[in-house]
Amino acid sequence: RRCAMAAEQQLLRGQVKAPEQTVKKTYQPKTKVIKERKGGKAIMRVTKKKNNVHVGLYEPLTEIKLWSTTERRYGKVMYGTTYAVEAAIYTAKALGIDKMEIDLRGAAQIENTIRAIKMSGIGV
Fold it and tell me: How do residues 19-41 score in pLDDT, each as one tens digit?
């Protein structure tokens, strides 16, 4: 107790410098920023399951996944909707991709998916 009081008195007299307060560092995740691809090309994989649709955009040469989503993210599952495919096409346009190779897996009700891709205006 005496040591603490002596340290306070020395601090008040100016004989000892006050310890600097440390600044708490905030976490900054290391993310890869995908730049625009003017005139780029990508592979869009559409996998239809029983209750869900998985859609992913992939790099054509390296098969690296650029972006992916599922149909369930867009609310209650209603058959015949193409929300995930439309979202993938919108994202591809935002990235600057104008040509896509389409890979359809799962043969159930692919007519709506093909129609959505054709109506989007993106090169297939």
Answer: 565 556 665 555 555 555 567 89
What is the CATH code of the structural domain delimited by 40-120?
A: 3.30.420.100
- CB neighbourhood size of 76 (10 A): 6
Contact 46, 57 (CB under 8 A): no
Which residues in the chain belong to E strands, given as ranges? 40-48, 53-58, 65-70, 97-105
User: Which amino acid is residue 5, in one-letter code?
Assistant: M
Expressed in percent and rounded to 5, the helix, strand and coil fractions of the chain are 30, 25, 45
Residues in the chain: 124
Q: What is the DSSP letter of 123?
A: B
The answer to whether the predicted template modeling score (pTM) of the entire model surpasses 0.85 is: no
What band does 50 get if pLDDT is binned at 50, 70 and 90?
confident
What are the structure tokens assigned to 69, written together?
A: 């989503």
